[in-house]
């Protein structure tokens, strides 16, 4: 799991399934991030860079992007990742590594809850993130019902993987979320 530092004033969290080869170690810094930047903001800068570097975002007129956090859930080389992509739940129940990943993500969600008090929207990209998030939420309900209720009250969007979303040009929901963060033009 590649988790970036949590931002205290973060209102939206993008959870990407895994890094792409051209991301250079940071989510949405490659071709997909560049496409998102063009579609969402009409900028020729990768969306991930605008989220990570608030000085750049502010210089081009998008200071509100500092309220978005982005993280990846998987490295892609996990032993359970192929079954997770295919949605094979029975195969996953036998994977000890998967149970450890669910446990780690449950703890991460508790940290997000305690540090990011303004968080109101989570956007999950890809089927693998949907499954792991749902399993972590089930475990969170057992361990800490109060925190689980807080996450249930949030808006959680289950979207296709970023590359599919961009390819099929179905990014309108993400654009709406980013626009809601922007200050009004009036």
Q: Give a count of the beta strands, DSSP E runs of length 2 or more.
A: 4
Shape label: globular
SS-based class: alpha/beta
Largest sheet: 4 strands, parallel
Distance between the termini: 41 Å
User: Would you identify the regions where 5 or more consecutive residues have pLDDT less than 50?
Assistant: none
Percent helix, as a range, is 40-55%
- Radius of gyration over C-alpha positions, nearest whole angstrom: 16 Å
SSE ordering: EHHHEHHHEHHEHH
Helical stretch count? 10
Strand order of the largest sheet: 2-1-3-4
Please, what is the average pLDDT? Answer: 86
Strand content: 5-15%
Please tell me about this protein's structure:
The chain is built from ten helices and four strands. It has helices spanning 31-41, 47-52, 54-59, 81-86, 89-93, 96-115, 127-143, 145-153, 162-167, 172-181; strands spanning 12-18, 68-74, 121-125, 155-159. A four-stranded parallel beta sheet has the order 2-1-3-4, sandwiched between helices. The longest helix is centred in the middle third of the chain and has 20 residues, at 96-115. The termini are far apart. 36% of the residues are buried. The model has no long low-confidence stretch (mean pLDDT 86).
List keywords for this structure.
186 residues; alpha/beta; four-stranded parallel beta sheet; 13% strand
Describe how the helices and strands are arranged:
Elements: E1 12-18, H1 31-41, H2 47-52, H3 54-59, E2 68-74, H4 81-86, H5 89-93, H6 96-115, E3 121-125, H7 127-143, H8 145-153, E4 155-159, H9 162-167, H10 172-181
Parallel strand pairs: 1-2, 1-3, 3-4
Helix pairs in contact: 6-7, 7-8
